[in-house]
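Assemble and predict.
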Amino acid sequence: MTDVLGALTASLRAAIHDLAPDFRGDVQVQEVPADKPGDYGSPVAFTLARTLRRPPPQIAADIVARLQVPQGVAAADAVGAYINFRLDAGAFVRGVVTGAARPQAAERRKVVVEHTSVNPNKEAHVGHLRNIVLGDATARILRAAGHQVEVQNYIDDTGRQAAESIFAVTYFQTRYDAPSNGSPRKYDHWLGELYVRLGQAKETDGEAIERGVNEVMHRLERGELRHEVERVVRAQLETFNALGAEYDLLVWESDVVQAGFLDQGLEVLKNSRYTSRPTEGKYAGALVMDVSEFLPGLEEPNIVLVRSDGNAMYVAKDIGYQFWKAGLFEGLGFERFAVQPSGSPLYTSSPNGELHPDGRTFANADEIINVIDVRQSHPQTIVRTALALAEDPRAQKAHENSHHLAYEVVTLEGRAMSGRKGITLSIDEVTVEATRRARAVVEEKNPGLADIDEVARAVGIGALRFGMLKSEAKRMIDFRWNQALSLQGDSAPYVQYAHARACSILRAAEGAGLSVASAEERADMDALGPLEVKLAQVLARYPRVVETAAEELAPHQVAQYALDLATAWNSYYNHKDTSGRPDTQVLKAEPGLREARLLLVDAVRRGLADTLDLLGIAAPIEM
RNA sequence: GCGCCCGUAGCUCAGCCGGAUAGAGCGUUCGCCUCCGGAGCGAAAGGCCACAGGUUCGAAUCCUGUCGGGCGCACCA
């Protein structure tokens, strides 16, 4: 059907074309401030003043005189230099509740989003929480904008950290007791503690530990300890799934190397004129890459890819991985790894896997998004730059379409977290506490509720996720219990509550024999007024919000919109006439108006649920 | 030193590819359940939008500089 905003812009353009045929500028249409006449307005007359050399109010009047207002718009008036539109309430709200406008990305692309990528050697902490939630929400938003999204989680199974944890088990001659044995601790937590203890033991027994860890690293590279790592990965996945995050694919570093992506990547780069193998100087024997042409101003433009001892740097492996994401290489095999809570399969790279399990093709992305904290900007820039200096058109294209979604760090009550030192707060601990607090409130507010555990989880974890998403990624977050788990104000529960309230009305309507389906026939949309228009205008923003949030990789815009919609709805719901009586009631309104309002409430309900879903937050129908 | 990011109400933040009187939440004060859910709503108080220049009909928004803060610049990741 019609998109009123789009139609308004088009009709303005048509009218402007008469006056200024050469005008190519932007024609904005925005919501009008509360106390000004009209619903939408445009300041375009200001912009035209320069070329037409006439006062903006005159131009506004001229445009209004020529304007053919589109359907759904009652009138256009010049208000000073602004051109304001009064909406036809019935037609406008009808358009909105029937979902006239849907998010639509400019072109559908295959987008690979890599996020989480927690070292497989300890439990995930609240710093990782931000990564997971940000990546997950971004993937959801991109999907809603119409893209094909593949979420990858990289497992650094050959790194030092994994080696240390695994070595710690033998070093301390201990073994994991299953939870039934009176030790309720998850495997990743248990292992993480050994990791921290090993760090301390290095002070007195450093050499032996160093030898042992190195040996484990070699065994990891040969893939001998895959099961040990897998055990941690599975424990961590429980945490991620509990947060509502799911993945399409686990990519193991050892597999990336074994598939030859490291070597192939290096081969591509070696053929470039930007890499060299100095025979003297401080880089003698190493393979270095000169990025000065692409990143001017660096003090040290030479990046070591392969050390003089022959070992590849981490960034070199990352480059191989990135090249594969972009579709330059093939040869990684996959198999099914798990079934996730939603029922969707999780695949993993595997030495014995198939290229196309269940007919699926991984990677080969048009667009690559790496969700990593801002401190990784330097290596991320190098990975991206490597694409630019590989002389391959696909790499060039991937260079342009690679993004580092950088987010600032999360501190803990003002202090930097450190997994190595054990200064952390685990996600598991936080989700348990969040759920506990939410449950206490639900019990108090809604004692008879049936699915109390499920609702408490939705509210508690929703609050956590929302807190991680509501402000821009480049903002630092200081994790504080009371703030993170707040159930009121600018929070997920605020939005969830608004949703539950809308559900409650629809339930009551159903009980009175009034269904949404039947309302569609009997609704008298023309009985609606300015209050409904105001609410519908917020609903009408939804498609643009999704589109720009996807384009700008900015989930916080969706979170802010969720608050706006909930506020608009709460405000409508509580509205009173001048004598102080409620004047927006649904069920007690006269027939016709009643059904029309019911349709609007249903649209609000859907809008809130959809918006929360983009953030990975559940919308309980009662709470 | 060089590079990136930040500076908006007491605190935490929206608003930033220029547009109407700068908006929320928390906190403070007052009011609202005879009304479909008070986890809510309404109102008050609280702002040289760090500072100084510039561009513009118009600047929190763009440009330059200054000050203050954070992060990054390894043959670590």
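The mean pLDDT of chain A is 93.
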